[in-house]
Design goal:
Length: 285
């Protein structure tokens, strides 16, 4: 189909960006998210001439969600000795070999769109939010780590940390539907576990308590929200659907369905069974 001309607010007529079919075409909610991203990119290309090249190269010219994510991440983390074309090829290969990662990426997009009131659409998450970028760079590094390519996993993790100010060890285990809100200063250690549907705000540490080896980092269960600046230290569990208040220091296990706060943290509230703090994003006690 021949592209129609669109008149921008500048008064200049420009051709519409051609649509590229998703290959393979995702279905259901996943398909809606990625098709919505392409529609939003088309609209941005029409409205903002300065951004037209960006959305064209990173979104509209890409044939699949895997290639879109690879293009965005490579653009963000590339450096002189990790050039963008090679990074893009590496990341796209990893994502195509691991469709489950693309499904997690899609869940992460939906999570941020649902939980962040400042987020207008999924295209904004994809292109502009460094917490999302840091999490997806971790996902690629984790796949490399599991494949035994530890040096490359470390190199990618280090470069992502320098680019986004988020430090996630590539051996950590993180589920889908996770939001790293703002992102700056988040540290997630080697043996940490973060289950599905978790929200973590800026300057959170999931760390150890010293120089011990072995399993030494926190286990964050499904539906947990961790407030800004909280520190959770040691091989302890934060139970499902619980909340860690901003600025807290957690040194002991946290039961499910409660809020802990303070230094050291203590239980200050018990939740309803149907409460999900990571989705509600209520920062009050």
């Amino acid at each position: 189909m021949k592209a129609e001309a669109h008149v921008l607010h500048t008064g200049h007529a420009v051709p519409a960006m051609p649509r590229v079919a998703l290959v393979p075409s995702p279905s259901g909610e996943e398909g809606e998210i990625w098709h919505g991203i392409r529609d939003a990119a088309q609209a941005v290309a029409r409205r903002e001439p300065l951004l037209r090249g960006r959305v064209q190269s990173l979104v509209l010219a890409q044939p699949s969600p895997a290639s879109i994510v690879a293009a965005v991440l490579a653009r963000r983390v590339a450096c002189d000795d990790l050039p963008e074309p090679a990074l893009r090829e590496l990341m796209e290969d990893v994502l195509r070999e691991h469709p489950a990662i693309v499904a997690q990426v899609t869940d992460d997009l939906a999570a941020v769109r649902e939980r962040d009131p400042a987020c207008p659409d999924s295209l904004h998450v994809l292109l502009n939010l460094k917490g999302f970028h840091a999490l997806q760079a971790y996902r690629v590094a984790h796949a490399l780590w599991q494949a035994g390519r530890t040096e490359l996993a470390f190199a990618l993790s280090n470069q992502a940390s320098a680019a986004f100010a988020v430090d996630i060890h590539p051996a950590a285990r993180i589920g889908g539907g996770v939001m790293l809100d703002h992102g700056t200063g988040i540290v997630i250690g080697e043996t940490a576990v973060v289950e599905d549907k978790v929200s973590i705000l800026q300057n959170v540490t999931l760390g150890g308590t010293g120089k011990e080896h072995g399993d030494r980092h926190p286990k964050i269960r499904e539906g947990v929200m961790i407030g800004a600046g909280a520190k959770i230290l040691g091989n302890i569990e934060v139970g499902a659907m619980s909340k860690v208040a901003a600025g807290s220091v957690v040194l002991k296990p946290v039961p499910p369905h409660c809020t802990v706060a303070g230094v050291p943290a203590r239980i200050v509230r018990h939740h309803r069974p149907d409460s999900c703090p990571s989705v509600e994003m209520d920062q009050t006690l």
